[in-house]
């Protein structure tokens, strides 16, 4: 089976959020789709290992913030490569609360949903949510996974549906320039060495998080 064909499917980059008492949680998701228009219903896929999955199941309510191409890339690093269980992901992120759910303001807009059905797969939970509140407050281009991968040079978080343990792209890198890859988010830096003061633009990791990519 040629799994590369799956890359032709269209994906966005979203922050899915919820709340456990006073604790705000959230994670990056790229598998979200509209199911019906009336009533407005969407489907969201969240990995079983994500703490956000547990909270959505208990709260039965979640939010979706649609990231834009100009959204701060550190949002992806924070929500995609850390766990809400041990981190306050909203500490350094601009957000507001709508209907008791936090949403990211550095985005194209948001949707608030009530969970109306749940389907379990081997690794992910698919939440079916009826949209109860939404706002569109930017006409900028929404970020796609292709843009994130090609322009920002990021890779899928380990819990994402699109994650692949072995990245074919590593084999295609130009041999003339050394490539250094962030072990946390997959960002690739080009140069003879990674400067000691370099900070990953995606996840904020220091130069010590980078390793040289071998062919």
What topology emerges from the helices and strands here?
Layout: E1 14-20, E2 23-29, E3 32-37, E4 40-47, H1 51-59, E5 61-66, H2 74-80, E6 95-98, E7 101-104, E8 109-120, E9 124-136, H3 145-150, E10 179-182, E11 188-190, E12 210-212
Antiparallel strand pairs: 1-2, 1-5, 3-4, 4-9, 5-8, 6-7, 8-9, 10-11, 10-12
Task: Please identify, by name, the CATH architecture of the largest domain.
Answer: Roll
Instruction: Return the structural class.
Output: mainly beta
What is the CATH class of the largest domain? Mainly Beta
Percent of residues in helices comes to 10-25%
Mean pLDDT: 87
- Topology as H/E string? EEEEHEHEEEEHEEE
**Would you identify the regions where 5 or more consecutive residues have pLDDT less than 50?**
167-174
Distance between the termini: 24 Å
Taken as a percent bin, the fraction of beta residues is: 35-45%
Strand element count: 12
Tell me the domain tally: 2
Shape: globular
Described by strand count, sense and barrel closure, the largest sheet is: 7 strands, antiparallel
The helix count comes to: 3
CATH topology of the largest domain: Pnp Oxidase, Chain A
Strand order of the largest sheet: 2-1-5-8-9-4-3
């Amino acid at each position: 089976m040629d799994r590369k064909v799956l890359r032709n499917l269209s994906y966005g980059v979203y922050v899915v959020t919820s709340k456990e008492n006073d604790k705000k949680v959230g994670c990056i998701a790229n598998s979200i789709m509209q199911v019906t228009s009336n009533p407005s219903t969407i489907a969201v896929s969240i990995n079983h290992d994500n703490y956000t999955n547990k909270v959505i199941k208990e709260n039965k309510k979640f939010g979706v913030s649609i990231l834009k191409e100009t959204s701060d890339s550190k949002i992806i690093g924070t929500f995609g490569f850390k766990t809400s269980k041990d981190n306050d992901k909203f500490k350094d992120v601009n957000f507001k609360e709508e209907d008791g759910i936090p949403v990211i303001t550095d985005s194209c807009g948001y949707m608030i949903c009530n969970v109306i059905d749940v389907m379990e797969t081997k690794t992910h939970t698919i939440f079916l949510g009826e949209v109860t509140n939404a706002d569109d407050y930017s006409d900028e281009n929404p970020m796609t996974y292709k843009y994130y991968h090609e322009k920002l040079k990021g890779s899928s978080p380990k819990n994402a549906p699109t994650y692949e343990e072995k990245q074919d792209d590593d084999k295609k890198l130009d041999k003339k320039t050394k490539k250094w890859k962030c072990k946390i988010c997959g960002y690739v830096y080009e140069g003879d060495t990674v400067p000691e003061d370099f900070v990953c633009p995606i996840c904020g990791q220091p130069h010590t998080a980078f390793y040289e990519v071998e062919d």
